[in-house]
C-alpha cells in the first residue's frame, strides 16, 4: 500500500461522516451559515435570547441604549439607594450598624464585578461579535469530532450558569423576604407601607440577579472557549494515535491551536486579573470585618455576605479551573510527541532489521486513555511506511517542548504551579489578617 493511500485512508476515517451526515450536521457548523441569521435550529439562538433578556444585546442602537440604561439603573442607582441606611427603619429594634456595614461590603464588590463584566462584554461585542468571540468561524477547519463536541458544549454552556445562579438566587430570595419583612422603607413625600417595600424588594432582587448574571456570563464564555481548545487538543491526540500521521500536519494544527490560545489569553487577561484583585480585596475585607466585629452574626445581617462570597468564588474558580485544564493539556503535548517520536524511531529501526510484523503494524504502547486529563497515557500505533523522517519528528518534539504554554497572563502560564502560588499568597494574607484580629481583640 502506498503512503498516500494510507494517509488518505486515515484522514477519511478521522473525518468519518463529514459528507454523508451533511444534512444532519447542525446549521451552526455549515459554511453557508451567515452570522446575522437567527433561526430555530441555530445553536446561538439561546445565547442571543439570553443576551436580549439580560439587556446585553448590542446588535442595534436601540439594544445598546437599553443595555446602558439598564446597567446604570440596576448596577449603579439601585445599589447606591439600597446602601443608604437612612431609608430603612426597623420595626422592632434599632437598626444594627453591622447590617449597614455588611451591606456596603456586598454592594461595592458586586457592582465592581458587574462593571468589569459589562465592560468586557461591550468590548467583545463591539470588536468581534458573538460568532467570532466563540471561534465559530474557525470551526470549518476542524474535524467532525471537534465540531460535534463543541456543539454539545454550547448546549451545556448555560448549565454552569444555572448551577451557580439558581441555588444562590433561592438563598437570596429568602434573605430579602426576611429583610424586607423586618425593615420598613421610608422615603420623603412617599407614604411607607407594603407597596413601597414590595417595589424595593423587586428592584433589589433584580439588581442582584443582573449584576451576578453579567459577571457569571463572562466566566461561562471563557470556560466555553477553553472547552473548545481542549477538544482540539483531543483531536491532536488522535493525529498522534492514527496511522499515517505526518509531523508537518501536526505542527500546523498545533500552530493554529497555539494562535487561538494566545488570542484567548489576550482577550480575557484583564478580566481575570481585575477579578482576582476585586475578589481578594472584598473577601479579606469581609474576613477582617467579621472577625473584628463583636456582635452576633446571623442570617439577617450577614446572609448577603455569604451569598456574595459564594458567587464570586464559584465564578472565579470556574475560570481558573478551565484555564488550568487547557494549560495542562498544552504542557502534556511535549510528552505525547516524545512517546510518538520514540515509537516511530523504534519502528523504523525494526523495519530496517527485518523485525516488523507481517501485517505492517507494530503497537508499542498498550496504555489506554483512562484519565482524560492525563495527556501522556494514550495508545500509539504506527505504520511501517510512515512518511515522517527522524529530523522532522525531532524538530516537532523540540518545538512542542519550547511552546507548551496554554492560557497565559502577560507571559505567565496559568497552570497548577501558578495556582499553588496564588493559594500560598492568599493563605499568607489570611494569616496576616488573623494576626491583626487577635491584636485588635486583645
What is the tally of helical segments? Answer: 11
How would you describe the shape? elongated
- Radius of gyration equals 27 Å
| Unreliable parts | 1-41, 90-95, 355-387
Task: Give the terminus-to-terminus CA distance.
Answer: 84 Å
Overall mean pLDDT stands at: 75
Which percent range describes the beta-strand content? under 5%
Described by strand count, sense and barrel closure, the largest sheet is: 2 strands, antiparallel
Computed structural class: mainly alpha
Give helix % range. 55-70%
Number of domains: 1
Could you explain how this protein is built, in words?
This protein is an all-alpha fold. The chain has one domain (31-87, 96-183, 194-352, 386-405, 412-440). It has eleven helices and four strands. The protein has helices spanning 3-14, 45-53, 61-82, 97-127, 130-133, 144-182, 194-241, 247-292, 299-352, 390-402, 416-441, and strands spanning 88-90, 183-185, 408-409, 412-413. Helix 4 (97-127) runs antiparallel to helix 8 (247-292), helix 4 (97-127) packs parallel to helix 9 and helix 8 (247-292) packs parallel to helix 11 (416-441). The protein is elongated, with a radius of gyration of 27 Å. Residues 1-41, 90-95 and 355-387 have low confidence and may be disordered. It comes from Gossypium australe. Keywords: Membrane, Transmembrane, Transmembrane helix. The chain crosses the membrane at residues 65-88, 108-125, 157-179, 199-222, 268-292, 304-324, 417-435. This is Ras guanine nucleotide exchange factor K.
Amino acid at each position: 500500500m502506498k503512503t498516500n493511500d494510507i494517509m488518505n485512508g486515515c484522514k477519511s476515517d478521522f473525518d468519518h461522516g463529514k459528507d454523508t451526515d451533511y444534512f444532519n450536521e447542525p446549521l451552526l457548523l455549515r459554511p453557508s451559515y451567515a452570522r446575522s441569521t437567527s433561526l430555530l435550529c441555530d445553536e446561538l439562538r439561546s445565547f442571543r435570547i439570553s443576551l436580549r433578556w439580560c439587556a446585553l444585546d448590542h446588535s442595534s442602537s436601540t439594544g445598546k441604549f437599553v443595555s446602558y440604561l439598564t446597567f446604570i439603573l440596576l448596577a449603579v442607582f439601585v445599589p447606591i439607594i439600597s446602601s443608604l441606611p437612612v431609608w430603612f427603619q426597623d420595626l422592632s429594634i434599632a437598626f444594627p450598624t453591622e447590617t449597614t456595614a455588611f451591606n456596603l461590603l456586598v454592594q461595592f464588590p458586586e457592582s465592581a464585578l458587574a462593571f468589569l463584566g459589562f465592560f468586557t462584554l461591550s468590548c467583545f461585542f463591539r470588536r468581534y461579535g458573538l460568532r467570532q468571540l466563540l471561534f465559530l468561524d474557525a470551526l470549518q477547519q476542524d474535524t467532525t469530532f471537534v465540531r460535534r463536541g463543541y456543539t454539545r458544549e454550547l448546549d451545556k454552556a448555560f448549565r454552569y450558569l444555572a448551577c451557580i445562579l439558581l441555588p444562590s438566587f433561592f438563598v437570596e430570595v429568602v434573605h430579602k423576604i426576611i429583610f424586607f419583612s423586618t425593615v420598613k422603607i421610608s422615603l420623603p413625600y412617599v407614604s411607607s407601607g407594603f407597596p413601597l417595600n414590595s417595589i424595593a424588594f423587586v428592584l433589589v432582587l433584580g439588581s442582584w440577579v443582573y449584576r451576578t448574571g453579567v459577571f457569571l456570563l463572562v466566566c461561562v464564555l471563557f470556560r466555553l472557549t477553553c472547552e473548545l481548545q481542549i477538544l482540539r487538543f483531543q483531536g491532536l491526540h488522535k493525529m498522534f494515535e492514527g496511522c499515517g500521521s505526518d509531523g508537518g500536519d501536526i505542527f500546523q494544527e498545533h500552530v493554529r491551536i497555539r494562535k487561538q490560545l494566545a488570542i484567548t489569553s489576550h482577550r480575557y487577561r484583564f478580566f481575570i486579573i481585575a477579578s482576582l484583585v476585586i475578589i481578594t480585596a472584598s473577601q479579606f475585607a469581609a474576613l477582617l470585618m467579621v472577625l473584628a466585629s463583636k456582635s452576633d452574626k446571623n442570617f439577617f445581617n450577614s446572609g448577603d455576605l455569604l451569598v456574595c462570597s459564594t458567587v464570586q468564588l464559584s465564578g472565579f474558580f470556574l475560570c481558573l479551573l478551565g484555564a488550568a485544564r487547557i494549560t495542562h493539556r498544552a504542557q502534556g503535548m511535549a510528552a505525547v510527541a516524545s512517546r510518538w517520536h520514540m515509537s516511530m524511531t523504534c519502528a523504523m529501526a525494526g523495519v530496517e532489521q527485518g523485525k516488523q510484523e507481517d501485517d505492517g503494524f507494530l503497537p508499542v504502547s498498550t496504555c489506554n486513555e483512562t484519565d482524560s486529563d492525563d495527556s501522556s497515557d494514550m495508545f500509539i500505533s504506527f505504520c511501517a511506511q510512515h512518511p515522517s523522517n527522524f529530523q522532522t519528528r525531532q524538530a516537532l518534539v523540540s518545538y512542542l517542548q519550547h511552546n507548551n504554554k496554554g492560557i497565559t497572563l502577560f507571559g505567565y502560564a496559568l497552570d497548577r504551579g501558578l495556582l499553588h502560588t496564588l493559594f500560598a499568597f492568599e493563605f499568607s494574607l489570611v494569616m496576616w489578617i488573623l494576626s491583626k484580629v487577635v491584636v485588635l481583640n486583645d
